[in-house]
Amino acid sequence: MTFSVLAVIVLCGMAGPVLSGLSRLTAPVVVGEILAGVIVGESGFKYLPATDPTVVFLSAVGFAMLMFVVGTHLPLRDTRLRAALTIGVTGGVLSFVLAAPVGYALSRISGVGHPAIFLLLLAASSSAVVMPIVQEKGLTGDKVLATTAWVAIVDIATIVALPLAVTPGKAPKIAAGGVAVAAVAVAMFWVAHKLRRWKPLEQLRDYSRTRGWAFDLRLSMLVLFSLAALASKFGTSTLIAGFAAGMIVALAGEPKRMTTQLIGLAEGFFVPFFFVALGAKLDFRSLVSSPSDLELVVLLAVAIIACHLVVAVVLRLPWPSGLLASAELGLPAGVVSLGLSQRIISAGNGAAIIAAAMVSLGASSLGAILLARIPATPAGPELPEPPAHA
Question: Percentage of the chain with pLDDT > 70?
Answer without folding.
Answer: 89
